[in-house]
Amino acid sequence: MQIREHFAYCPKCGIEVQSSDNHRMFGCEHCGFTVYFNVGASVSGICTRQNGDVLLLKRMHPPRMGSWTLPGGFAEPDESGLEALVREVYEETGLVVTEPVAHSAFPNTYVYKGVTYATFDMVYVCQVEGAPILDGTEVDAHRWFSLTELLDADISFPSLKNAIDLYVSQHDLKKTTG
Ligand SMILES: [Zn+2]
Fold this sequence. Notes:
Layout: E1 25-27, E2 34-36, E3 40-48, E4 54-59, E5 68-69, E6 72-74, H1 81-93, E7 98-112, E8 115-127, E9 139-145, H2 147-152, H3 158-176
The chain binds zinc ion.
């Protein structure tokens, strides 16, 4: 369910409210209280090692438990995209990213405990070195994927799948055009 559909009462004045198909905001006609359901910003990394393989992690929890995902997570308030990337990759894998370059951003929906959130998933391309040490709370397995293998992997979210497919197509283009 979209966030707005969970509102049966105004959280400020407590009056009963009607359901609405406006998934962008809630506005109380009684007291004027207004809240916007803005998209949540997430940041992920296409983390490559020296031979060009890309690191994917296996999700331990819903949504999309057991699927492969890029290291990443939601940006904190006041955090830059780059700061969020560095923090999230380190928290999940213990790896330090180098040479990060902003790559792409696609929309997604993220269902958590029955609430559907609209997200904006930003992706960086970066380098990492060494073996990941997983945090064991969000992800419980890792694997390095070649570019060909990436296209067949069960990727967690359409936004990240779009970013990965774009990355692979750009890489193939570079190879064929020399
Ligand atoms: Zn109200």
